[in-house]
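Many introductory courses stop at the sequence. We go one step further.
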Amino acid sequence: MHKHKIGPFIRSFVFFAILFFLATSVATIIGNMISKKALAYGDLWELLLIVSMGLALVVAIVLEWTRRRQQEQIDLFIEKMQAMRAQNAYGGKVLLRPDDPLAPLANAINDVQSLNRSRTKMLQQQASVLNVLLENMPIGVLRIKPNHEIVQMNDQAMYMLQLPDNAIGKPFENVFKSHQLLALVNQVLDEQISQREQMEIDQLDVDVFVTYYQLRERHDEVMVLLYDMTELKRLQKMQADFAANASHELRTPLSAIIGFADTLLDGAQDDPEVRSEFIQIIHDQAEHLLALTNDILTLAKTPVQNKSVEQLPIREMVDETFETQANTVKGLQLTLYNRADAHTAFQQNRDDVQTILTNLIVNAIKYNQMSGSVTVTAHADQRQCFITVSDTGMGIPSDQQERIFERFYRLDKSHNKKIPGTGLGLAIVNDLVQSLGGNIHLESQVGVGTKITVTLPNLPIDKRKSKV
């Protein structure tokens, strides 16, 4: 035993030995006086001393055991309180008998421990939810202390600002590349007010919102929120371009129809030859207007969910499309080759595949050369369907191949004025293929021809909706 643990025991033993010795001595003397008997003092004092020391030892042992037990309980209470302060694992509860003097204190500590455990668990859950939210939200988020140190960021912020993995813990001036963003964050830190600004960061159009807030007294932070507006602005530009192009394309045939109709009403109808020519022009422009309207409506149509899927006779569908273009094919003296696999399991929506086939084949025929050819191949495996349309036409220059699927885009418009069309066929194919989860591959060489391959998922057939 250590000295500081032995001391109380010895003091208790000595105290009670003396106390019991005096008490028994007084009691013995009084007893002798009453009984008028005398005992030998040597034997008497020896007996009293032995009895006193024995009783003192028993009492001292009991008191020491009680003291140590209470000290162990107090040490346990202290350990529990320290663990709760440090937010460590608390372990089990402190269990004492109900009649123990320290039982109320043990119950109070157990209650506080349970409450802290519940609060810690709730905070951990909230932190996990917040982290998942930050990592998966499409907004870049950074937290910055007033000393300019970055304390938190998500992957989207790292991507948008091109930050290194070890940016956390560093001053933002050392990792930000945009001077405009640096100036905005510094302004918020100096003025302690929120600011919002749109800027270009590393070829991205970003809407930046920087807010100054207080977590608790004397603890402020700055949060930077980054909204990537690049795709939205691209779509807005496409929408504006589409509206402008659609207005122009619609205005052209309408102006022609109105112009020739006015000429007829002004007297040209009296000349049979002029009347016949103008009526034919009005008819052709009306057909072009109708085709243009249909294509615009097709592009604007919302994709239908849960389309019916069936096993398609792809070879027969190619033949039917060839037949609808018989007059154009005859005028250009083209040769058509249908090399679609007649035995393949081609499982898709009929209307979608027919739209894709028609636009690809019509485009290959219109932009072909005299005495050229158009070849269609189609096959499928268990996962995908493949349609390839090849022509021997004028081809597409390499610098224009990326734009060929844009709406209203036509190659060399001055050269192609005599080629009928709306400029929307390949745009319709592109939008439809993307909505179906497929992709398009283009190969072309000027003066040689063009080959377009469409890949679509080979869908399982719902027997309740399939056609026989």
